[in-house]
Design a protein that fits this description.
The protein is α+β, with helices and mostly antiparallel strands. Helices cover 32% and strands 27% of the residues. The structure holds coenzyme A (COA).
């Protein structure tokens, strides 16, 4: 038994905020942001929420797959910015879609979340017990940014990406051929965000609002070291050579990180489509939104070999190699 992505979908908020827009609110510039990251704009939620973006992305993916919500066995959302602690985003999504047969839960592996979800459904579906799953990355990161901290808030955006996954009998060489996940909790504090503080009859930390804190240079070093290694590992595991890969869809955090990974892998940048210029970093949603964009643009054809890779807070990373 193997698994295939049979539909993709994505959604971003209506409001597009350029670097110039930000420079009117804080001490930054288009030149600084663009030269260090490649980011030109991002979408920020005003009327949307993590749930509405997730619902829109999920509907688009189900539509493309020609699958009804009632056929879904599993819904897994990767997010760090679900709208409620309870119920989870996946259950809210289940209710909105009417996916009555599915079981639904969220995972948090930050920007690697979609890769973790993909590998998780691979395990579930390969058991033979379930047939169809919906996985998502969905975020409204703008609500956990400190808008007085120019070194973090300019990097991130909001949006959601989804994929419908189906189990199939392995009669041909296609589907997900290799996948890996990794974590290094010891370095977790380089990119962190506290939850609500303790508050009970014995301790009261008041109304402290927690925001994301990041040591950008440490995260950068981690990414350029880890991503090429993870990509090389799944390519080797699938018994392929790097030159055989048609597309590398990497987490969209920073153009320089993607360039450094391409260089280390000895591959041309043409094989690394990007959308961070218009989206910024949308954590778990970044890889599935990019996948949906290249899919809808007709950039993927049957038989193409694609590597997906993510990295982020935890620290965590994940990669997968699939034949479309
Ligand atoms: N606009 C203008 N200046 C800014 C700024 C902004 N938005 N943010 C920071 N600066 C300033 C700093 O205050 C610092 O000024 P100083 O030298 O006077 O102290 C200067 O720019 C350089 O800051 P530094 O942090 O050294 O820049 P950098 O070259 O390391 O670039 C990042 C910062 C965040 C772009 C870079 O480290 C990076 O991309 N890291 C990876 C982050 C990432 O991808 N995170 C998500 C992973 S999932």
């Amino acid at each position: 038994m193997n698994i295939k992505i049979i539909g993709t979908g994505s959604a971003v908020p209506k409001l597009r905020v350029t670097n110039d827009d930000l420079s009117k609110m804080m001490d930054t510039s288009d030149e600084w942001i663009k030269s260090r990251t490649g980011i030109r704009a991002r979408h920020l939620a005003v009327e949307e929420s993590t749930t509405t973006l997730a619902v829109d992305a999920a509907r688009a993916a189900l539509n493309m797959a020609g699958v009804t919500a009632g056929e879904l066995d599993i819904i897994i959302s990767a997010t760090v910015t679900q709208d409620r602690l309870l119920p989870n985003l996946s259950c809210e999504l289940q209710a909105a879609l009417g996916a009555d047969r599915a079981f639904a839960f969220d995972i948090n592996a930050a920007c690697s979340g979609f890769l973790y979800a993909l590998n998780l459904v691979r395990m579930y579906l390969s058991s033979g017990r379930y047939k169809t799953a919906l996985i998502l990355g969905a975020e409204t990161l703008s609500k956990i940014m400190d808008w007085n901290d120019r070194s973090t808030c300019v990097l991130f955006g909001d949006g959601a990406g989804a994929a419908v996954i189906r189990a199939f009998e392995e009669d041909e060489k296609s589907g997900v051929l290799a996948a890996l996940q990794g974590s290094d909790g010891g370095k977790g504090m380089v990119l962190n965000c506290r939850n609500r503080p303790l508050n009970n009859p014995y301790v009261d930390h008041g109304n402290e609002v927690p925001y994301v804190h990041m040591n950008g240079q440490e995260v950068y070093k981690f990414a350029v070291r880890t991503v090429p290694k993870a990509v090389a590992q799944v390519v080797e595991e699938a018994g392929m050579s790097m030159d055989e890969i048609d597309l590398f869809l990497l987490h969209q955090a920073n153009y320089r990180i993607i360039e450094a990974a391409a260089k280390r892998l000895g591959q041309p940048m043409e094989k690394f489509p990007t959308n961070l210029q218009e989206c910024g970093n949308i954590s778990a949603a970044s890889v599935p939104i990019l996948l949906d964009e290249v899919n809808r643009r007709g950039m993927i054809k049957k038989g193409d070999k694609i590597v997906l890779a993510g990295f982020g807070a935890g620290l965590t990373w994940g990669a997968a190699l699939l034949i479309w």
